[in-house]
Write a structure and sequence with these properties.
By secondary structure, the protein is mainly alpha-helical. The protein has a single domain, classed as Orthogonal Bundle (MetI-like fold), CATH 1.10.3720.10. Helices cover 76% and strands 0% of the residues. The protein has eleven helices and no strands. α2 packs across α11, α4 crosses α6 and α7 crosses α8. The longest helix is centred in the C-terminal third of the chain and has 35 residues. It is globular and about 70 Å long.
């Protein structure tokens, strides 16, 4: 008798368990040791909130965290705006001259090593005499993340029926109004997803920020990297735990918002 294909074997269960443990066990250990009372990260000294209090009184870390949030928010917004426009140009525009070159330059950061991108941006800022700081890091992160937004939005634009826009224009809308009233609401989930992806990539970047940052504009990943080179402090575990908590809250809120939007769409659908 043939063996059912959908049967879960012990090997599959063990492989899944080992894979999940490999991915998430280090994170669980990090969260647990963020509540360690001992100064040594490898020695358990009991439960304590000591290192969270240390982080809240560490002005350098707080400034770096605030800088990372500002850079990520501004660069994600700029990348979403530019990436959406680029995706619309590639999906809705005609076969304009230089389209292949434009798309290749747009998607180049997807495959280009971050070291090359960071070094080239550094040489550009030095050549134009720009003072490295908040805006140089923001421009660099916008350059890095814009292509990711363009990919996400273009994948949403590709299957959309253009007859919806044509119908709107037949009813009196100009092309801009048709896009804002018909196409934009349909691709808004992809735009929001692109913004979140760009925000995450900017918040996590170390390589490009290390090339383009200046005095007083160090981001949180750079600050943590500089601290780790001198030895891992339990305070760093507390910082990472807070970041994980923030990400979990954002995911939960986004999930509830998506379900609420789907429920409203189903209730508004005609019977």
């Amino acid at each position: 008798m043939a063996r059912p294909l959908n049967r879960i074997s012990p090997f599959n269960v063990a492989s899944l368990a080992l894979g999940l443990a490999f991915l998430y066990l280090p994170i669980v250990i990090l969260v647990i040791y963020s509540f360690n009372a001992s100064r040594l990260v490898t020695v358990w000294g009991g439960w304590s909130l000591r290192w969270y209090r240390e982080f809240l009184h560490d002005r350098a870390m707080l400034d770096a965290a605030w800088m990372s949030l500002k850079v990520a928010a501004v660069s994600a917004t700029l990348a979403t705006l530019l990436g959406t426009l680029a995706a619309v140009a590639l999906s809705r525009g005609e076969r304009f001259k230089g389209r292949t070159l434009f798309s290749g330059m747009l998607y180049a950061p997807l495959v280009m090593p971050e070291v090359i991108t960071g070094l080239s941006l550094l040489l550009l800022f030095v050549a134009v005499g720009a003072e490295r700081g908040f805006w140089t890091v923001t421009i660099a992160h916008t350059t890095l993340t814009m292509c990711f937004v363009a990919v996400v939005v273009q994948s949403r634009l590709a299957p959309l029926d253009r007859s919806l826009e044509e119908a709107a224009m037949d009813l009196g809308c100009n092309p801009v109004q048709a896009f804002l009233r018909v196409t934009l609401p349909l691709i808004f989930p992809a735009i929001a997803a692109g913004w979140m992806l760009a925000f995450t990539l900017s918040l996590d970047d170390v390589v490009i920020a290390s090339f383009t940052t200046g005095p007083g504009s160090a981001t949180l990943p750079i600050r943590i990297y500089s601290e780790v080179r001198l030895g891992v402090k339990p305070e760093i575990n507390a910082i990472c735990t807070l970041v994980l908590a923030l990400i979990a809250v954002v995911i939960v809120v986004a999930s509830f918002a998506s379900k609420l939007t789907s429920a409203r769409g189903e209730s508004a659908a005609p019977l």
